[in-house]
Amino acid sequence: MVEDRVTDGRRIAQLLASEVTGRETGPLAAMAVVDADPDVEPTADGAFAYGIDRDGDRVADVAVQPDRAYLELRAGVAAGTDAAEAAERSDLRVRPKAVDPPRALLFVESGAAVKAAVDVLVAAASDDSDDAA
Predict the structure, then answer these.
(1) What sign does the CA torsion over 9, 14, 18, 20 have?
(2) pLDDT, tens digit (0-9, with 9 covering 90-100), for 18-48
(3) Could you state, in order of their start, the residue ranges of all structural domains in the chain?
(4) Does the model's pTM come out above 0.85?
(5) Are strands 47-54 and 57-65 parallel, antiparallel or unpaired?
(6) Which end of the chain is less congested by CB atoms within 10 angstroms, N or C?
C-alpha cells in the first residue's frame, strides 16, 4: 500500500485540473481549465497556475505554493451559500479575502484533499449560476 502523501503544490494543482477536465457529464462538464501556465513555479505568495471557468464565467483562480495549492473562489462565497457550507464541511482551511466583490481562499494541502476541493468548487459554481438566474 502506498503511504506517500502528495504535498507538492504544483502536483496538487495538476490533480485538481485533471478532476475538473476529466468529466464529460455532471456539474463538472460545464467547467474548463483556462489560461493555464504549464511551466508555473510555486512561490511563497502563490503563483497563478490557471483559472477555472463555468460556461465562460470565472469561478476560481488556482495558485501554487511550494507545499499546497489554493483556489481563489470568485463565486458562491457569501455566508449561507452552498459553497460556504461545503467548505465548512470539507475540513479544508477557508479564509475570506476582503475585496469587492468578495472572494474566498480555499487551501488544498494534499492530493487527498482534491476531492473535497472539487465538491466546494461545484457548490460555488452552482451558487453562481443560481445568482445569474
Answers:
(1) positive
(2) 999 987 788 888 899 999 999 999 999 999 9
(3) 9-132
(4) yes
(5) antiparallel
(6) N
